[in-house]
Amino acid sequence: MGEAEKRVRELIERYTLLEEIARQLSERVRLLETIYGEVTTTITTLEELGKTTVPRETLLPIGGAIYLFGEVKRFDKVLLNVGSGVVLEKTPEEALEFLNLQKQEVAKELENSRSRLRQVLMELDKIRELVQTLRQAAEAPG
């Protein structure tokens, strides 16, 4: 096996690894975009509820794109799931503070993941071009 063939095989192995990394990063970006959207919607909902009088009729999501009609009877406290099965009672303002911080963290992680994905995709393009150049050189007469 010549040096050029060996180099092409190494590049193809690297390319395969980077393809998997790109796939994982793409999944992560999609997940973070979903989380960012959910947090943004929750912030907007809390802000809008704070502007209205109580009691107020609203739609309550129960999952699977199904909603129930419900009534918010009080809005001085909300329940905030902070993870690991822990739910804390907070004021709407405290919940908004928590959500805005979470939104900033998700936005930062989203930008980092997008940046890393761009880097990986650029490296994949470079490897693709290099492999093509090496193959053309190997096939050239002479």
What does this structure look like?
This protein has 142 residues and is an alpha+beta fold. The protein has one domain: Helix Hairpins (Orthogonal Bundle), CATH 1.10.287.370. 68% of the residues lie in helices and 18% in strands. The model has no long low-confidence stretch (mean pLDDT 94).
Q: What's the structural blueprint in terms of helices and strands?
A:
Elements: H1 3-51, E1 56-63, E2 66-72, E3 78-83, E4 86-90, H2 92-139
Antiparallel strand pairs: 1-2, 3-4
Order of helices and strands: HEEEEH
Low-confidence stretches: none
Largest sheet: spatial strand order: 1-2
Please give the CATH architecture.
Orthogonal Bundle
Named CATH topology: Helix Hairpins
Structural domains: how many:
1
What CATH first level would be assigned? Mainly Alpha
Overall form: rod-shaped
The secondary-structure class comes to alpha+beta
* Beta-strand share of residues: 15-25%
Radius of gyration computed on alpha carbons: 25 Å
Number of strands: 4
Q: Kindly state the mean pLDDT as a whole number? A: 94
Main β sheet profile? 2 strands, antiparallel
Whole-Å distance between the termini?
18 Å
Oligomer type = single chain
Helix tally? 2
Helix content: 55-70%
List keywords for this structure.
alpha+beta, Helix Hairpins, two-stranded antiparallel ribbon, 4 strands, 68% helix
